[in-house]
Amino acid sequence: MVEDEEGVRRSLARSLSSQGYRVLEAENGPQALAIWNERSAEIDLLFTDMVMPEGMTGWELAEKLRDERPGLRVVIASGYNTEMVGHGKAAAAGMSYLAKPFSATVVGKTVRDCLDGQPA
């Protein structure tokens, strides 16, 4: 999970952990890449915020990781409206899109659907 807001990241990680998922946390793209380089074999899904600090968007991170593993499941979350972040672009690329704000139930369902191959 890549989310620059610590409170949001911790809350989402707790929620997903309580639903049985193992969650690795990163606050930005470069940190996520470092985790990926060490533990990519353990990662089945990338859950990333669209807009992050450190010069890498969630979209760029997803594309980079999918270059290495084309079948990687991806959920991109954003507080911006769907026209700004390209909901259609995410769907066309086989990624799921999740609009903020969202509930823990919606996050859990979106992650499960994405892992099961059902785009959100």
Can you summarize this structure?
48% of the residues lie in helices and 12% in strands. By secondary structure, it is of the alpha/beta class.
Describe this structure in words.
The protein has helices at residues 6-18, 29-39, 58-68, 82-85, 87-92, 104-115, and strands spanning 45-49, 73-78, 96-99. With 120 residues, it is α/β, with parallel strands linked by helices. The protein has a single domain, classed as Rossmann fold, CATH 3.40.50.2300. A three-stranded parallel sheet has the order 1-2-3, with helices on both faces. β1, α3 and β2 (73-78) form a beta-alpha-beta unit. It is globular.
Question: What keywords describe this structure?
Answer:
48% helix, globular, three-stranded parallel sheet, 120 residues, 3 strands
The assigned CATH architecture is 3-Layer(aba) Sandwich
| Separate helix tally | 6
Parts with pLDDT < 50 across at least 5 consecutive residues: none
- How do the strands line up in the largest sheet? 1-2-3
